[in-house]
Structures are given as C-alpha cells and as structure tokens.
Amino acid sequence: MKSVAQMPCINLLPHRQAARRRRIQILLWQLAGGALLGLLLVLAAGAWQQQQLDVQLRRQEGWRNAMQQVNAILVTGKRVQSETAALVLRQQAIASLQEQRNAWVRMLDALARAMPSGVALHSVRQESAMVRLQGHAISQEKVAALLLALEQAAPWSRPEVIEVRGAADGAVEWTIRLALAP
Fold first, then answer.
1. Are 170 and 118 in contact (CB under 8 A)?
2. Among 99, 103, 113, 94, which Cα is nearest to 151's?
3. pLDDT tens-place string over residues 31-62
4. pTM, 2 dp
5. Distances in Å between the alpha carbon of 26 and those of 8, 14, 16, 18, 23?
6. How far apart are CA 164 and CA 148, in angstroms?
7. CA–CA dist 30, 101 (Å, integer)
8. Dihedral of the CA atoms 54, 58, 60, 64 (nearest 10)?
C-alpha cells in the first residue's frame, strides 16, 4: 500500500475554494470602496474647510476695509480738529489785537487829557501789558502833576515813576510805567 503522503491530493470540495476566492474578492472590493469613501470624505472635509476659510478671509477683508475707512475718517477728523484749533488761535489773536487797539486808544486819550503844560513826551514803548513813557518836564512838580492827572484820568493804569533825572537847566528827564487798559 502506498502511503498517505504520496497520494495525490484531490479537492473533493471545490466550492469551498471558490467561496474563499469570492470572500477575498469581496474583502478587496470592500477595502477599495472604504479607501475610496475615505478619500471622498477627506476631499469633502477639505472643500468644506476651504469654503469656511474663504468665508473667514472675506469677513477679515471686510473688517480690514472698514478699519481703513475709519482710520481715514479719524485722520480727517484730526486734521479738521487741528485746523479748528488754528482758527480759534487766530480768532483769539485777532480779538487780542482788537482789544489792544482799543486799549491804545483809551491810553492815548487818557494821556492827552492828563498831560499838563510844561511836560513833553518823547517816547512811548509797549512792554507786554505795560507802557513805558519817557519825556522831560520843566520841574519835578510837573512830573508829580502828570502822575496825579494820569491817576485821575486812567485809574486802571496804575502809574508808577521809574526814574527822574535832573538836568543842568533845572528841567528833569522822567520815565513812567503804566498798565495798558484792560
């Protein structure tokens, strides 16, 4: 008798091998389908994320444009504000000059009314809100009379004698400081 090892192998159940091949083929098709489905899911998720990113970028671009418009408006506002401040300063300077003009008119009017005979005026200088008068008089009594007349004609001027110098002929040189009219 021949041994079992030497006997040819005959497949008595060929349908099992065919079923196995079918199961392997189905498994391979399922694996390919799963890979294809995974690829489609990845592509769909990537497309959705890209769409969301585009929406976010458009929104950011809109905010960026709005911020640029606001910045342009702020720059314009600051420019207008600085121009307004310059105009206010100019208006204040003009008002100050107008007030000084009136103050000078009042001061010269007071000087004209207060100037006694025997007193001569040589110069008038403005030093900020003060006025310096220089002149000569025939005597010190005339300088005192000028001070009293200035005090009566323009009490707001607060006259004060800065200097009185005697000359050889008995006349005096004088310097008086007055406050410019308010």
1. no
2. 113
3. 999 999 999 999 999 999 999 999 999 999 99
4. 0.45
5. 31, 18, 15, 12, 5
6. 16
7. 104
8. 150
